[in-house]
């Protein structure tokens, strides 16, 4: 694994954040690979979206050699390597290999849970649910890509129709995964503790401000250095600007005098042509 450097490097427009798959541009700080420079990670995406109280939670999965990191959402859907369905919210990813897995597809994730928002158990169910498709508005061919009427009964917000949800069939109560994650996390942590025989869960602490503060300190140092170089240059520039102003003023004065004398010469020559006799007689006056 290579170290990452926090930078404002302008990345190619075709590059995306390895975590959320969102675009990387020159207006956002990013972490980039110190070795090959082709790996990018948004600063916000480097923060732990899910923690255990001991740091940024990493989950091990027997089907992949690297630890998987939890992410809350992605800008561009990927495919879960377990179920083959789209991954959009609440998933684990190996950012090095682009291996994605729904949280509920992890072997330790429970199929049935209880949650404080509902009296009855909730069971993991594929979405959309059958009763949601029986509404009169779906008598025509159903296209879920353009539908906005799928809600979570916990947060009462629109949910992703393609994400499986926890469901009570008796009361038709639907809870999206992000709203019941507090019930899923203990099972995942417990599985890690059991697998490692009571060793500490694999975590990596994220120092939220240390990297930013270090980067800002470097910027402050560079700013101070440039200001120190700028001051004598400003004094020299001011002196040169005064000299330049004086030279420009002298040029204006000389050009004005040149114009006046040139105009006088033209008038004098014209006068000689118009009065040649007077000039000649004047020149013959005895002394």
TrEMBL record:
It comes from Corchorus olitorius. Pfam families: C1_2 (PF03107). Keywords: Coiled coil, Metal-binding, Repeat, Zinc. This is Phorbol-ester/DAG-type domain-containing protein. Residues 223-257 form a coiled coil. Residues 63-113 form the Phorbol-ester/DAG-type domain. The lineage of its organism: Eukaryota, Viridiplantae, Streptophyta, Embryophyta, Tracheophyta. InterPro entries: C1-like_sf, DC1, PKC_DAG/PE. GO terms for molecular function: metal ion binding.
């Amino acid at each position: 694994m290579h170290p990452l450097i926090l930078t404002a490097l302008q990345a190619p427009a075709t590059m995306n954040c390895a975590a959320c798959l969102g675009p990387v541009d020159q207006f956002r700080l990013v972490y980039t690979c110190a070795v090959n420079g082709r790996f990018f990670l948004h600063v916000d995406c480097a923060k732990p979206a899910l923690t255990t109280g001991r740091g940024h939670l990493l989950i091990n999965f027997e089907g992949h050699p690297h630890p998987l990191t939890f992410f809350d959402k992605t800008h561009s859907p990927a495919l879960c390597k377990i179920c083959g369905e789209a991954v959009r919210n609440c998933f684990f990813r190996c950012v090095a290999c682009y291996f994605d897995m729904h949280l509920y597809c992890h072997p330790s994730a429970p199929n049935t849970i209880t949650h404080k928002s509902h009296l009855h158990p909730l069971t993991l169910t594929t979405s959309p649910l059958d009763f949601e498709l029986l509404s009169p508005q779906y008598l025509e061919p159903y296209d879920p890509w353009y539908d906005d009427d799928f809600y979570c009964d916990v947060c009462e917000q629109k949910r992703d129709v393609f994400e499986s949800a926890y469901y009570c069939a008796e009361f038709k109560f639907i809870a999206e995964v992000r709203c019941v994650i507090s019930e899923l996390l203990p099972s995942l942590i417990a599985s890690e503790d059991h697998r490692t025989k009571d060793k500490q869960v694999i975590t990596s602490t994220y120092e939220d401000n240390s990297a930013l503060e270090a980067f800002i300190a470097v910027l402050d140092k560079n700013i101070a250095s440039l200001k120190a170089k700028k001051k004598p240059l400003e004094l020299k520039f001011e002196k040169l600007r005064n000299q330049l102003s004086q030279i420009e003023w002298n040029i204006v004065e000389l050009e004005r005098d040149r114009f006046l004398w040139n105009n006088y010469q033209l008038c004098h020559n014209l006068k000689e042509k118009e009065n040649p006799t007077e000039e000649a007689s004047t020149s013959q006056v005895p002394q």
